[in-house]
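Ticket reopened. Same input as before:
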Amino acid sequence: MPAAAERRPRTLFQKIWDDHVIADMGDDYFLLHVDRHVVHDMGGRSFAGLRNRGLALKNPELTFATADHAIPTTPGISWSEYSNPYLENLRESSKALGFKFFDPGQPGSGVVHVVAPEQGIALPGATLACGDSHTCTVGALGVMGWGVGQSELLHILATQTSIQKRAGNMLIEIEGRMGGAITAKDVILHIIRQTGASGARGLGVEFAGSAIRSMPMEGRFTICNMATEMGARYGLIAPDEVTFEYLRGRPYAPAGALWESAVASWRHLAGDADAIFEKTLRFSIDQIAPQISWGTSPDQVIGIDENIPDPDGEPDAFKRKAMMAALEYTGLAAGKPLAGTSIDHVFIGSCTNARISDLRLAAAVARGRRVAAHVAAWVVPGSFNVKEQAEKEGLDRIFLEAGFQWRNAGCSMCGGMGDLSREKIPSGKRAVSTTNRNFVGRQGPGSRTHLASPAMAAAAAIAGHIADVREFGIEAHGTFA
Amino acid sequence: MEPLLEIRGPAAPLPLDDINTDMIAPTRPRAHLSNTKISEREFEAAALFAPLRYDASGAENPSFVLNQPGFRAARILLSGRNFGCGSSREQAVWLLADFGIRCIIAQSYGGIFYDSCFKNGILPVILPTNTLNDLMQEAATGGSEHDFTVSVAERSIVLPSGRAIKFDLPEFRRAALMSGVDDIDMTLSRNTEIAAFVDRDRAARPWIYLAQQRSV
Ligand code: SF4
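Engineering reply: fixed in the latest deploy. New output:
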């Protein structure tokens, strides 16, 4: 590292970047070391690419895999009798090439961005790549995580490196208090509404401020998960005691003396006080209502007590056109309240909101109530371990008694690809989902998605229509009544 | 990869922001197409821009730019902000390449999509909105009298009117596109540098290297 670079004040992102530079390729492009490569079932095809080109897997000890996108989440499924080509591909490749594969139905398995932190694979100051655009989730631990396409995936398998353009830095400071009806999901939806879907395009975004510092680890994952929905390449939160406590004792985290030296080094990762960001945004969350999306882009969001915006009031012609198309697709009327709109499905799951605290929150709303007769409501834990923990706490009973389906871990309906695309929202049907994308056809061709928190999703399931969870005995900034 | 030196042809304007990969390459049931006799490959190719390209019955939407006579063989695509945002599905790039698109000109891109273009022999060009609007004007109704010429070597676009516009392209990307050498071969040639980095890093951050840790 050049001495000059050491003296210049650096952001968290710049420090991690500098630690991984193998070569300067010119024009702000660098060859970086990839510390952790996590592969999911749809990326498994790249192993064939490796064989076809006669290349070896560069570093099996830094390669991990889990099957999540295409597997079924059918309750009670017998994994010894189930198979699909993507799953087989990962099983065989892991045996032949010697990397760790978390087989479905086994401890440690689940959605890739839930598994990597839960297993201590994602570590502060590390680089982590995965063939999935929500890899920024792990940034919550102070990991520089980014998504790659299929060709880049092959590049990483073969070289354990990645060619990256140095990204600019943006700071998002979030002040205020969460709790009760206002969750990390509401906070990030509220922010994306204001930044726009490309407001942080290509940047490394660091989230900071009092709301982040007091936020438990799981909420931080929800925040960083959706950094990609504002166009960010990387989402980051500086590691602190909350981070270290979360990681301590996890299967792939260092232990003993190595743990002590790792933590000592991680304490130096936080950005220098005088480091410069290209852009800084500040948000206060003290006054926000529960948030929900109305359109087909994650920035088309309103508070549950607001009306659906009117394209006629939008000065930007491009945006106006997009709003009109979104209203047509979602079948909604401008200027009307979104609350009260009848729904057909509820999906509580995904790498955004399927960790244990999410399920506890949804269960608190569902407890002692019934899902509306016309609604199909699914709860899909983010991992095998989350499912096991939830069952230990009796959350499964609460969901089942309320009429929710309690399913196995996986991506399921989030991307409309679960069980080889059989788990999806049917065309024309409306869903409230705890996922991260409401794109046209995202949860299945013709599906209509409203993004919201697990509390809002559970409330909608019970009401049978889009509803304000604050009417379910949850105070805006308090605890459950 | 095929070397890419120059692209000449009509440029299809798609003046929308935030075109995501699910719009470029949706997964969709076969029943969506009115003609069910086509082959699997044709079916896949027909998925390109399906939500924009077809109406609800599966028939072609005549107002969609690639369905218009002057643009059916377009090799250049013009769009707005944040083109190719959304999921990491590289199918979006593959379908564009299969259609014959070799150059996209937009105001900005989704990061993963942008990188994947180079790995599939597509040149993604970034231009400011004002210039893009001029390009869209000149694209007019397509056809050979509205041909654009994009030169990788010169990093330039010559519009139908003869006006020339320069664009930025990192030197290593330009060299790779022109020679057709792919990223993997380029990186493998740096094996010594990679090994030296890992040696240093194992000492500095031993907790990253699991096998070493477990054998200690
Ligand atoms: S849960 Fe959804 S967003 Fe997350 S990795 Fe799976 S499909 Fe992608």
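Chain B touches chain A through 55 residues (CB under 8 Å). Residues 177 and 192 of chain B are 25 Å apart (CA to CA). Please confirm and we'll close it.
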